[in-house]
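Side project, low priority. Logging it here so it doesn't get lost.
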Amino acid sequence: MITNPIGVLALSRREIHRFVSLAKQTIFPPIISSMLFMFIFGVAIGSRIDFTETGLSYLAFIIPGLMTMHLISASYENTSSSLFIGRWHNHIQEVLLSPLSYLEMVLGLLAGGVMRGFVVCIGVYYIPFLFEPIWIHHPLILFYFIITISVIFSCAGMLGALWAEDFGMLNIWNIYVIIPLVLLGGVFHPVTMLPDFVQTISKFNPMFYLVSGIRFSVTGLEIIPLWKCMVFSFALASAFFLFTVYLFKIGYKLRT
């Protein structure tokens, strides 16, 4: 229950201002890298790939994957860097001593990650209009997945920041776990093109459901039932959020 909405709003504004003031580092790099991916893979190489079985051009197919990949990275990096720097310089104590509940602290920090993920994701979506206009089929479903996915990985970023002991450990999960799973979740290829046993393994990859949800909302291509993607993303977001609030409540690596 939120009892101090003004405090939550103030913390949220601080987190949002933090990444907006560093837009050259936080917003533009993923958008520029996506532009290069789309030009090289979607336009130059994609024009030579027969992708008629999906009913989409190759460019249209990879756009939702790139949106998901950068949504995840932006959300994770925002909260992980903010919270870890707060721990490193010990100014996280200002938040801990403020009249905010642990739930409100997490919500305030979460706002920055969700907003940065949203801005980057939408920015990536508009890039292909330089090459081929691609219109969103289901805007409300897209909004649902952007929010749930950004909540998942904003919370994951906070968990990573609490776990890390130095800057070298901060991005271990992002580099060695999250990004590889995203790439294997169907960013650049339909899972149906893989051998049968690999397709079976892919069903245990959580990123497969998140990428598929974004892909359906943007292109209308349903690779797996939409309800499975929606239920999975909501359940994962709820679990990560509750666990993050719990760690704040017990003061895990925050009070020492």
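Brief comment: The chain is about 75% helix and 0% strand.
Revisit when time allows.
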